[in-house]
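Record type: monomer structure entry
Structure origin: computed from sequence
Chain ID: A
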Amino acid sequence: MGNALSARDLWVQVHLWLGLTLGVLGVVVGVTGSVLLFDRQIDGLLAPDRYRTSGAEVARPYSDYVARAGRALEGLARPFAVRAPEAAGEPVIVLARAMGEGGGASRVFLDPPTGRVLAIARGGGFVGWVHNLHENLAMRELHGREIVGAVGIAMLASSLTGAWLWWPGRGRLADSLGLRKGLPLSRNLHYLFGFYGVLVLGMLSFTGIFIAYTDAGRSVVSAFGALTPPARNVSVEGIVARGGAPVSLDGAIAIARAAYPGENLWSVTLPGGPRGTYRINLGEPGVEAPQSARGIVLFIDPATGFIVRRADPANRTKGDAFLAMQRAMHSGAPFGPIGRIVMCIAGLLPGLFVVTGSMMWLRNRRSRLVLSARAA
């Protein structure tokens, strides 16, 4: 009995201090993640000019959108990617990186039918700032991404220990599934939302760990199954070295569409440097690119038009599919709009747990002090 009590007390302390330390950072990560689930809607409310398109048809070559964005940036930033509209009536977005080392990113919004520049969000705007905060706590150069991964580990451990500490004795489970009589509201909220949210919050934490620690995640998964080489290692010898005629952006898109007819264009990343390739993302109509595990990725040699590498559901290994699913599950995409709403609510739970857990800790501390004073 004594050992069981001491073990429980140990896990209580682990659960408590995880919540009072890394749990505070978990609030930031959770809230920003909830915002990003509706980033386009929020961005449209904050800056409606960016989304005032004249129609839904992408009527111009994608190279024209990139050229127009480059002229609008007046040479202060270099376009490096273009995104197709994610929904009917949304703009084409060209991403650009400021010149010079450490330059920030900008987004140029263009009208799909006319190519007219609607707006420029320098530095990424509010949504870009939230992305930066969620992914690396705005500390990319100070191992912010690794810190976010550590927060994910802490949240997962807190979820598991909280479920174990909550679990009632024999015959009391039914009474514990709702508000318990005689308990303060803060404790009831902590228990109730902790129980019903533990699976979702645990899944968010688990998938977030894989996203934050990409290389470590690949190492773990490779121990159980085959993985294809990471996409960042894809390169070519270089246009100048081979003396080929360069393939245009529109030519590369045409090659991708010919290889996968019927698939929608999601985005294109332009070649970076002499060894770079076009990276073209295709996918199912009506499915959002960042949230799908079933997308198609092509790497095309800009000198010859040769498809250097392709990743699609047909050649993806089980390990590849598992890793791709982590990002999709992190957003709740496989469960549709309801999944997104559930994930949004789950992202707010760390804030609730930190507040209610702190109230419980303070109340217990006051009780101990009162009992000590009476004993003295």
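Annotation 1: Residues 238-242 have pLDDT under 50 and may be disordered.
Annotation 2: The CA atoms of residues 238 and 274 lie 5 Å apart.
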